[in-house]
What does this fold into?
Amino acid sequence: MAGNMTLSEKLDENEEQKLREFENKIVTKSLLYYLAEGEHPIYSNSSGPGNFGHGATNGLLMGEDPRLPKMPEKPTFTDFLRYRFTIGGQQHLLQSARLAKMNGLPEKLIFACLMHDIAICGFIRSDHGYWGAQMIAPYVDEEVSWAIKMHQCVRFFSDPSNNYEYPESYTKMFGVDYQPEPYIVAEYESAKKHKWYMSALEICKNDQYAFDPNILVNWEEFEDVVGRNFKQPPEGLGNDNSPSAHIWRTLRRPCNAL
Ligand SMILES: [Fe+2]
Ligand SMILES: [Fe+2]
It folds into this structure.
């Protein structure tokens, strides 16, 4: 039968098989995962995006995903580091924080550097400053989450009077002609006038030099800093119904059907 199938039918069949491997449960994927592969699934198959699984005989996966490392009932920030976040991304955060410490910044800003790309290593890349700030806002000082949100725009603009130059690595990564989008420019204009602008700038100043594969920093070095600056909810991250609890739950169970 397979010999008579069209290419799109074969792809659909492979997808179907991939999606129903676990205890007869269908694992649904969000639209975002398809878009990330460059697919625009207008014609979704029975378990793809846009299909709500109504009538599915085996049931949809809800709750914990057996393919992923099991998390404790009341997960802490450290549990997310251990069971969900990327290792390489964590080194970038740790190296940035160590640089901030060497540069003599106050603890609050060392902590901001430690968290600044939390979205990239722990959730999503696009608009990472905004997502990262939102993830941690209920648990940290307002200045920290503001600075993380605004490093998204501040990093694109040189500020020679405060010793910040446009990163050379950005010219390599985005090209010499890259121009930040209008929403970034507008956000920067308002950030520049804000009382915490220098905090966002310090994240950028301690960010661009912090990519050394020969340095290995451990979280133990910043355990106290995290303990003093991240208010861990006793119910566990995601169980606490804070304004960002849903993000932590989604990270814990990314294929929860609804
Ligand atoms: Fe960043
Ligand atoms: Fe960074």
User: Anything to note?
Assistant: The mean pLDDT is 88. The chain has two domains: 1-61, 77-252. The CA atoms of residues 94 and 130 lie 20 Å apart. The pocket of fe (ii) ion (ligand 2) is lined by residues 92, 116-117, 207 (CB under 6 Å).
